[in-house]
Amino acid sequence: MPRSVPALPEGIDPAWLPPEAFRALGARRTLIRGSGPLVETVHGEVADACGRFGGEVVRGGGTVAPYDLVMEVTDADHLGDEGFTCGRAGSTTTVTASGQRGLLYGLFHVVRLGEEAFRGERPRAVHRPAVAPRMLDHWDNVDVHPVMGQVERGYAGGSLFWRDGRARGEVERVRAYGRLLAACGINAVAVNNVNVHATEARLLTDRLGDVAVLADALRPYGIRVHLSVTFAAPVVLGGLPTADPLDTAVRQWWARAVRGVYAAIPDFGGFVVKADSEGQPGPFTYGRSHADGANMLAAALAPHGGTVHWRAFVYDHRQDWRDRTTDRARAAYDHFAPLDGEFADNAVLQVKHGPMDFQVREPVSPVLGAMPRTRLAVEVQATQEYTGQQRHVCWLGPMWSEVLRFRPEGEDGPSVGELARGGLVAVSNAGDDPFWTGHPLAQANLYTVGRLAWEPDADPHRLLDEWIALTFPAAPERLVTGVRTLLRGSRRTYEKYTAPLGVGFMVQPGHHYGPSVDGYEYSPWGTYHFADRDGIGVDRSAATGTGYAAQYAEPWAARYESPGTCPDELLLFFHHVPYGHVLHSGTTVIQHIYDTHFEGVAEVEEARRVWASLADCVDPARHARVAERYEEQLRGAREWRDQVNSYFLRKSGVPDEHGRTVY
Amino acid sequence: MPRSVPALPEGIDPAWLPPEAFRALGARRTLIRGSGPLVETVHGEVADACGRFGGEVVRGGGTVAPYDLVMEVTDADHLGDEGFTCGRAGSTTTVTASGQRGLLYGLFHVVRLGEEAFRGERPRAVHRPAVAPRMLDHWDNVDVHPVMGQVERGYAGGSLFWRDGRARGEVERVRAYGRLLAACGINAVAVNNVNVHATEARLLTDRLGDVAVLADALRPYGIRVHLSVTFAAPVVLGGLPTADPLDTAVRQWWARAVRGVYAAIPDFGGFVVKADSEGQPGPFTYGRSHADGANMLAAALAPHGGTVHWRAFVYDHRQDWRDRTTDRARAAYDHFAPLDGEFADNAVLQVKHGPMDFQVREPVSPVLGAMPRTRLAVEVQATQEYTGQQRHVCWLGPMWSEVLRFRPEGEDGPSVGELARGGLVAVSNAGDDPFWTGHPLAQANLYTVGRLAWEPDADPHRLLDEWIALTFPAAPERLVTGVRTLLRGSRRTYEKYTAPLGVGFMVQPGHHYGPSVDGYEYSPWGTYHFADRDGIGVDRSAATGTGYAAQYAEPWAARYESPGTCPDELLLFFHHVPYGHVLHSGTTVIQHIYDTHFEGVAEVEEARRVWASLADCVDPARHARVAERYEEQLRGAREWRDQVNSYFLRKSGVPDEHGRTVY
Predict the structure, then answer these.
(1) Is-catalytic flag, B357?
(2) E runs forming strands in B158-242
(3) Which of A277, A439, A582, A591 lies at a 20 to 30 A Cα distance from A6?
(4) Cβ(B629)–Cβ(B635) under 8 Å?
(5) What are phi and psi of B648, to 5 degrees?
(6) Which residues in chain B are closer than 8 Å to A322, comparing Cβ atoms?
(7) What is the dihedral of CA A173, A179, A181, A185, to 10 degrees?
């Protein structure tokens, strides 16, 4: 029985799967061969499209007939569960897959190709995801957290899964969400926040049924659910006196708990764990290592095929700002690199892409090049915590691509995308907002992150164009060009009007929205810029600084070590320099600060103008929502510009060369 | 029937009314003459004391007998309802009062005198409060506010009146509270926050019964209750389309509401109103003046003898930090001085003691000298919002006394205490904490504010000694000396380690605890210090600044106008000066910053030592609570010292003359 396509609740945006995107497919005659639940999903999709656009779908037919598209599960190709091939000969396009999931991904590939899929000849090409899992972490709380709310760092309304302490039970919306995710290649979702509070802890035990409902909704789109668990679960849920990972009773408790989970959710993905981090409990309490902790959970999950994602975000969040020798940037490497080779095969070490915390500009985490014998996953934030909170446009594709294409051992070595055998994990930016992501253009981040997980070396601009073509089908060229322009430059624009030259932060404490240059300067969080009347930046060199630069292999260690070779955009991350220091660009640091902040605002003004000019070719609700957010972005950008410029004029005493207004 | 003394719930500190404080009275033979409910309160108090200490109380007896104390209500003296006389001839001490309240205050006067009341001769002296009402404003919310909590700016646990949306109904504790307040002279309590939210608005109407319960509990101690109301009540409660104060239907609505209040609470005190301030609605909405707004409520209250307290805390809290011409300090004067003479007799204009917001050092508000034809009340904060939040010791008696003794027209003119015919209003620092005020030593603030309201020109050190004698009866001299030392210097110590030279703020945004030098520098709140690499301070002169200094009469306008004559402690409030500017004290501004911050911490260290040395003569619970808070104060003071010093070293580049550590 073909599985029906989820009905989008009234008023909810179809995002990158509007009916029109299925026109080419839906107008054709398609044969589907194979069996299993995901083949039924594929059948349902094609049938739904054909219902709209006059095509036809045939199931399994033995004899060859004049089909426009043949989709077939066959184990001839050994492409794994997720790979597929696509080619076209004569007047037939053929998609083959070794597994049902591959067929599903092949379907969405055909959708992306649109009419192209049915034109001319097309050599048979193999498509296979680079990594698995390709995962979204939802920082969704079950209970509304008194400070963090329903979704921690969520900027798209409430949670799709939970509300006010209970499961929402809106299965159709969750199915529609899973469909969107499958269409960009996501195959795993962690359904609760890595900060696991009392109620959320119980998802592992007596509230497991709520998780099973989500698993059932997402399974037809090839998505497995994962659960964030508290390391202290044996104590807080099991009543044991300890959560020591080497304690037999603890290990038995976890094994039993995991058996319970798999009884309810046979294809359960595994656990996500934030341990010994920002107040969460962990193995350090018992004098054990992170490998001990992770491996204990891995052992419990292994018999069932599950994975533990162990986050490497471990640092001292009670740092003394007076102490310039402690460097938060060093922490993940210092904690984890010595453990390389000690993690179990089904333990994934989940490493933030940069050494700090999802700033708009950071160097790539040195951990990603330092643990070849560990399954590493790269963690990125689709949710725009520090990048405008989905009120500002900031398409992060180029940044993620830079990370994934970074080669820790130089040009001849492997890329991060190749090294990260544990996959790509993104913190979700989706919520119950009608546009899913608050800012309609922020959908591009969610789409891009899924596609990059599948194909880490992809040109992000190509993925952006895919998103535009799907989201605005049959759009006039000026809309395509306009949206492309707005998004391509948006990260650089955001960077321009916020913290300069890689120094990071300068945000309002707590909520992290809007500027506060000294907001974290005298805090315990380890995120400082050290600006004084003479200069700014953090000396992370090995020669005179914290030694962080030496955590990299060559050529990066040497390149970052000296202000003379350090890339401009990371200069203040690695060096404390005078305001008069001349950048490779030829301008001084102080003048660069002024220039970029004026430019950033001008670029937002221009972006707002471009968007306004597209009013006639975008549906009114979407246009209004984006227009309203551009107003806020412009207000915010001006506030950033003026606060940052004023701060540095007051401190440096150096006037703007061009005599522009600095307050 | 004598009214029984309220039973203090288990574990609740008796504060300045421990049983021992009644020893002298309780060991005597007392005659009480007069009738009425408050006379019964007095009778109950004396009877309770006699029950403990072996004395005797006789009621009304016609013939003279050998009494140690005679307390009598007689209208011979015309002292008003609250005045009393006290004298001693032969072996009899006599207290007379024209009204019942006077007798109650006379009783607590005798308690304060202790054995002194019964020694030698004592000429008959008249005691009369300078002003009425002497009021506490409770910023207590009925519902827990999502940001501000149960008590806005409360640092002493929950509210004594409300919990989680309901009246607490702990009448005995409220009675005990009323007794403490009466013993220091308070006669009015506003029972809810001046920021009136939805639930609190209904205290005026369908939840009036909750207020009546409080009124019943407080009445026997001579205290009238007041209610904070929202100016928008006719709209939000009455369903009218407007709250225009000149609209007939609005006036009728208020008249009817007030009649309802007085039907339930015949001695109701009146309303407190925060209008057109920080988001609260007000007459500006309707193009009316604050006098129109206040007078409309005054008219509704007048037939019943009620008063409206109309707060003068009106300013633009959406200021643009870029705009240096707007000056929040000017706002109250600019708004209200032109309205002098326009307010009704039963309207009190409630003016914060300084032009900003309860900083540890501000000049006296120029409004207090500028409205001779208006009943002004001085508003102070017993709750230590900006002065250490009852985790730091900061006895504010000297500051309040400075305000009350300030003479706006110079030495020959009247003092603020004389000008403020509308009384003294303090924001309460009490809550359901076992010590009432969180920090046990913060009780001294509550006591002092009541006593200063009664006698504004009192030497605050004398009032402090009263509090010590009552709170620590029969204490060894070194305890008395120790506590006196700790409290006397505490405000100056707090000032030393926080914002320098009157510039104010530099606190963490939102909660206002702990340092953040730039925390409000680029905010919309109008509270800036304008520090740059060359200097610091706000130019409020008439010649080159905002003109605020000219809001004063002479000699103050001229004195504040010039850095040469401006008092050191207010220099940065009135002037922007270079870091090298030499103070009257002989040191430079920058060195003063370093010196005072090191001194402030040293003084806290010394205070902690002194308190530790008193462990043997303070009860353990109280000693432990204070000792624990001194630890936090010391931590906090060090944080203030280091952040402020580092900030100014980084900005000025001037090293500390004495080579001490600045980070």
Answers:
(1) yes
(2) 162-163, 166-167, 188-190, 224-228
(3) A439
(4) no
(5) -80, -25
(6) 642, 646, 663
(7) 170
Q: Which two tokens stand for residue B74?
A: 């007689």
pLDDT digits (tens, 9 = 90+) for B380-403: 999 999 999 999 999 999 999 999
- Residue-wise over A138-152: b if at least 16 C-beta within 10 A, else e? bbbbbeebeebebbb
Query: Tell me: the pLDDT tens digits for B179-238?
Result: 999 999 999 999 999 999 999 999 999 999 999 999 999 999 999 999 999 999 999 999
First to last CA, chain B: 68
Q: What is the pLDDT of residue B500?
A: 98
Of A517, A639, A653, the CB nearest to B518: A517
Q: Which of A338, A397, A326 is nearest to A367 (CA)?
A: A338
pTM above 0.95, yes or no: no
Distances (CA, A) of B468 to A154, A663, B441, B477, B620: 53, 52, 10, 11, 17
* Residue ranges of chain A whose CB lies within 8 Å of a chain B CB: 321-322, 509, 515-519, 522, 531-534, 639, 642-643, 646-647, 649-653, 663
What is the mean pLDDT of the segment spanning A184-191? Answer: 98
Q: Establish how many alpha carbons lie within 13 A of residue A486's alpha carbon, considering only the half-sphere containing its beta carbon.
A: 28
**What is the rounded distance in angstroms from the CA atom of residue A529 to the CA atom of residue A651?**
13
Residue A181 one-letter amino acid? L
- From the candidates A210, A244, A276, A357, which is the catalytic residue? A357
Cross-chain Cβ contact B531/A652 below 8 Å: no
Say if CB A84 and CB A127 are below 8 A apart. yes
DSSP assignment, residue A8? Answer: P
Task: Give the pLDDT score at B62.
Answer: 64
Mean pLDDT of B414-429: 96
Give B380-430 as a DSSP string.
EESS-TTTTTTTS----HHHHHHHHH--TT-TTS--HHHH-TTEEEEE---
Q: Is A347 helix (H, G, I), strand (E, B) or coil?
A: strand
Judging contacts by C-beta atoms under 8 Å, the chain A residues touching residue B639 are 522
Q: How far apart are CA B222 and CA B227, in angstroms?
A: 17
Nearest CB to B651; choose among A533, A642, A663: A533
Contact assignment for A650 to B517 by CB distance below 8 Å: no
Alpha carbons B264 and B215: distance in angstroms, whole number: 10
- On the 0-12 / 13-18 / 19+ scale of CB atoms within 10 A, A279 is exposed
Residue-wise pLDDT for B581-636, tens only, equals: 999 999 999 999 999 999 999 999 999 999 999 999 999 999 999 999 999 999 99
Q: What is the mean pLDDT of residues A604-627?
A: 97
Classify burial at A214, counting beta carbons within 10 Å of its beta carbon; exposed 0-12, middle 13-18, buried 19 or more. buried
Question: CA nearest A364: which of A336, A313, A400?
Answer: A400
Q: In this structure, what token pair is assigned to residue A596?
A: 């970029």
Q: Which residues pair with B30 in a beta bridge?
A: B57, B69
Q: How many CA atoms lie within 13 A of A200 on its CB side?
A: 30
Phi, psi for residue A603 in degrees, rounded to 5: -65, -35
- pLDDT number for residue A63: 65
Are B645 and B593 in contact by the 8 Å Cβ rule? The answer is yes
Q: pLDDT confidence of A618, banded at 50, 70, 90?
A: very high
- Cα distances (angstroms) measured from residue A193 to each of A151, A197, A278: 8, 9, 14
pLDDT of residue A64: 62
> 3-state SS of chain B: helix, strand, coil percent to 5?
40, 15, 45
CA atoms of A32 and A96, how far apart (whole Å): 10
Read off φ and ψ for residue B97, nearest 5 degrees: -145, 150
Q: Is-contact A226 A190, C-beta < 8 A? A: yes
Separation between Cα atoms, residue A282 and residue A230, nearest integer Å: 8
Q: For residues B571-586, b (16+ Cβ closer than 10 Å) or e, as one string?
A: bbbbbbbebebebeee
Q: Of B486, B495, B487, which Cα lies nearest the Cα of B644?
A: B495
